Every structure is written in C-alpha cells, then in structure tokens.
Predict the structure.
Amino acid sequence: MPSKLDSIYRRMLITRFFEKGWGKPENLRKVFQFRKVISSRESCFKLVPRDYPVEITKKEIGSDSTLIEGQFKTPLELHMPGVVPEESQQAHFQLLIPNKWRNEKHKPICIHLAGTGDHFFWRRRNFIAKPLLKDANIGSIILENPFYGLRKPNNQTRSNLHNVSDIFVMGGCLILECLVLFHWCERNGFGPLGVTGLSMGGHMASLAATNWPKPLVLVPCLSWSTASAVFTTGVMSQSINWDMLETQYFSDGQYRERLSKMVTVIDDAFSAGQSFIQNFNQSLQELKEDISDTRKIHETENSNTCGDKYETRGICPQEDSSIFLAKSLKNTKLDSENLTIDAKDTLSQKMVIETEEPSKELGSTLTNLMKFILPLSAQSKSDKIDITKTNWWEREALQFMRGMMDECTHLKNFSVPFDTSLIIAVCAKDDAYVPREGCSSLEDIWPGAEVRYLDAGHVSAYVLHQKLFRSCIIEAFERAKKIYENDVGEGLKCDITYEQLIKRYDKNIQ
C-alpha cells in the first residue's frame, strides 16, 4: 500500500515541474533519435574517447583523506550542440579518497548521482561518501547533476525543471559523463569501479551502468525499471501542470502528429500478456459464462425490453449512456463452445461513450477476461494516485508522457549491464514516489540482479536507512574484488580521439 507519509510530504513541497511545457519539438526529436545511440553499449561507448580531458581545480589534503575537485565539458554538448543549457555544459565533481589505501592493487571508487532536489555535494559527501571511506576504504566521486547546484540555469528556481525534455537531457549528460569519469579513474589506477544513487539518482545510475563494457558495481536505491510511473501515477504527478501540458500538446501539431509516433509505451502490452498467461484457464471459463450472459441480454433486447446494462441513445433516454453497444449485438453471433465471435455490423453502429464512472452493476457485465487483458493503468483503483484524467484529450496527453518516459528511461530500451551479479537494488515496499505496479521487474530485465525490499515508504527509507544503502554498496564491492582481479571485459574501443571530437563539434556549430 502506498505510503501516506510520501503523499503528505509531497504536498508540503512547493516544487512544480514542467511549467514551460514539453520542451522544443526539435530538441525532443533530437533526444528521441539520440536515445537509440546511447541505449546500445556498443554505440554509446564509442562516443567518449578514452583520453577525454578532466581538469583538476582544487585539492585539499586532510588528516586521513584527500578531497579533489574537478570539471570537464559534458560530452552531450559535443554530440548534440545547443540542447544542453549553457550553465549546465560544464560538469563539476568532487573526489574523496583515503590518503593511504589498504591495498595498493585495490582502489575502489564509486560514483554517486543525485536524487531529486540534491544540489551541490555536501549531502552525499557527509551521509554516504565519508562513512564509506571510514568503514570500507572506498573512495567516492560526487557528480553534480545538470540543472542542479553549480549547473543550475539562471532562470530556474530550485529544482523546478522547466520542460519535460530537461529530464532526458539530464539523463543523457549523466550517462556520457559517467563514461568520462570511468575512463579517468582507469587512467589514474583506480578500480574496481561502481555507481549508485538514491531515487532519481538510482535510476540515472542504472542507465549509466548499462554502457560500461566491464564489470561494474551498481546499487540503485529507491528506483525501478522506468520513470513513467513516477510522473503519471506516483505522488510526483501531483506537482505537474497537466493543464498547460495538454494545451501545448494539442496546440502544436508537432507533438501529436510527429513526436508521439516516435515513442512507445512499453509495460501495458507486457503486463497484459503476463496477466493473460497467468490467469488463462480461469479466464477461459469465465469468458464462456460471460458470453452466455450476453446471449440472455441479446434475447431481452430483441423482445423490446429496455435492458439496464446495454443501452444506446433512443432506446432508454431516461438512463445514462453506456460504454457498451446495444444494437450492434443484433447481428452478432456468439458461439460459446468454440469461443468465436462473428460481429459483422458492429462497426456500423454508434458507440456512446460513458463520461462518468460506471456503476458496480454495469461493471459486472465486463468480461472477467478483460480484467486480465486490459493494461493495469486502465484498471487503477483507490490504491493509485488519481490524477483525474477524464477527458479524451487529457488521456492522450498522459499517454504521450508515458510514452516519452518509457522511450528514454525504460531499462528494457537499454543494454543489460555487463555483469548483473554485481547489481544490488534496494526498493521500498510502500513507495508512493516510485510505483512498481504495472512495470517490468528488475529481475526480469536483468537476470542475475538482486533486489532487496525495505518495509518502508520512499521518504522514511531515505531518512532511516542510509546505513543499509551503504552496506549494500560495500557488499557489492566485495563481490567485485574477486572479479576485478581477473580483468575481464568486452573488447569495445572508441576510435575517435578527443581532438577529433572537438574539431567535429567546432564544425557543427559554425
């Protein structure tokens, strides 16, 4: 059951997302096309040269640790000029390492990506990086998210991303920036390597881990397989200006006519198939019973009796219209033995759409089989966040949001990490921020990955279980220690040098 604390906490925040809309159509088109490149490990790995330069800007040596600050230009700007805001183009990070490693051949480094609202470095440095250093001699790289902290656009307030496209630009930046940092760590003799994050940072870490062709520790915390549920059924959906998004979606034909055809909702068909297979035998019998019931209704309608379940305008004007057809049943033959339906004239009849929620009695006429076939999102009850999408145009804009999020964030669209045995995912059972119902499971997408569940909601897990998150990171690095010594990996190489990449970039912006 979704945590009530998550819902209450979300209502207390004044953050509003996507106040300026979906983003420029031309930018979205570029992002959707580029997603197909960075979602494949073979093509994405070749985007970042091994000699990609990183500038060290500050170094502080303490009694037992050293804090280093550095920066570099995000590779996404080089590959997609003009998409990344100017203030976000320079990536900033902090590196915290021990003054003395316990084993000079074993220098583990973990990249920490920020969750929603986690600006600058202090929170991750003090709550995760320093304890990891003290307890397990694990170094940390704390990378600033685009649109946050030092990389926040001047006209942006707090964490209020202006456009839906900003989420995808952020993800594209982090995927390529992690490759830069992995290469830099290898050049400086660090390893084994890993990446982690909480909430949004956990999902960004999952995306980044898919494109490294060697064993990599991955510990995503409080995230799942896609961001679509976060913004359509989770409590975050209440912070979105849906009215503005719907208006923009229909006022500019590029969104509806062109961009909507470039995205795909993934889990509806998957969940429907899973439910159908799991409940097939039971559903088959129930379908026979429902067809028999429909015959009786057909006979009642033929005797000029106004049925109270199947109606059309003109037959029962005193009753509410129904989503079901009446006259179309007249020329419909039902064979309950062979389970075939020959409907010749159904399309010629007018369907009257019910705009209010059907009554319980009306709902009972829906075949029980359809309860298993319909997408879970269409069967949402009180246990899901209701964002009151009742009009057809609202539902279409909502589906566009789901399609966009699945297209650019669903893990099924990305390569499987090189070694899934190094993945330990930590999820909250009652997470209202990151709903899991109706979404593909991590175990199915990444066979061999381990998923652990906390008996908590999103907020309570974040506040109370930091120690558990750290212990999972330590455990995963212990597993990696044995594998790392074997120095295995795919033989992928980037054929372009940084100098060649810059020359191509300069030519593109002229």
Observations:
- The CA atoms of residues 426 and 452 lie 5 Å apart.
- Residues 164-187 form the longest helix (24 residues).
- The first strand starts at residue 55 and ends at 61.
- Confidence is low (pLDDT under 50) at residues 272-277, 305-387.
